[in-house]
């Protein structure tokens, strides 16, 4: 077994404000890349046998209210989920949120329902996420004090297309 470097993605997608990749997810021939500075932007690529080609438009959340250093990304067959710890100003005082999008051939990336809110402040919702079929798992550490170790809970969601 060996590991060899393939092609490099990135130069064509660095924006004028100097975005940097913060999370990636790979599933089969599909790659999702998320950048987060003051917005969250997710770009999905598909391998066509020759090169990685963009799949649909960039998903942009202008005011996500999640901390860019504490976000996560999960990739399903035709779905992408992302979100993280609630953040406003310099405090982790807002509930976390998770956003799910589904790819449709004629309309591109569309939201699946409304964003899922954690419901509790400082619970570090959506720090870890994973897809399998129509199920999505998201973790949350429940504690009122971010400096203490708290209980870790996993919430399971069933996704359906409309």
Quaternary class: single chain
Please state the overall shape, judged from the principal axes of the Cα atoms: globular
Mean model confidence by pLDDT:
75
Spell out the helices and strands N to C.
EEEEEEEEEEEEE
Instruction: Classify the beta-strand content into a percent band.
Output: over 45%
Tell me the number of strands: 13
Count structural domains.
1
Query: Helical region count?
Result: 0
Radius of gyration over C-alpha positions, nearest whole angstrom: 16 Å
Distance from first to last alpha carbon: 44 Å
Biggest pleated sheet: 5 strands, antiparallel
Low-confidence stretches: none
Helix/strand-derived category reads mainly beta
- Summarize the amount of helix as a percent range: under 10%
Compact overview of the structure:
The chain has 162 residues and is mainly β.
């Amino acid at each position: 077994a060996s590991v060899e470097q393939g092609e490099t993605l990135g130069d064509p997608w660095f924006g004028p404000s100097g975005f940097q990749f913060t999370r990636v997810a790979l599933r089969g021939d599909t790659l999702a890349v998320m950048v987060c500075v003051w917005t969250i932007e997710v770009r999905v690529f598909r391998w066509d046998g020759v090169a990685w080609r963009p799949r649909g438009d960039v998903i942009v959340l202008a005011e996500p209210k999640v901390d860019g250093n504490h976000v996560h990304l999960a990739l399903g067959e035709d779905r992408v989920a992302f979100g993280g710890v609630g953040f406003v100003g310099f405090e982790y005082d807002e509930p976390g949120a998770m956003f799910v999008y589904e790819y449709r051939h004629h309309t591109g990336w569309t939201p699946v329902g409304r964003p899922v809110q954690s419901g509790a402040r400082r619970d570090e919702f959506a720090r870890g996420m994973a897809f399998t079929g129509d199920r999505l798992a998201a973790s949350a550490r429940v504690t009122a004090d971010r400096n203490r170790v708290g209980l870790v809970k996993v919430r399971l969601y069933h996704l359906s297309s409309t």
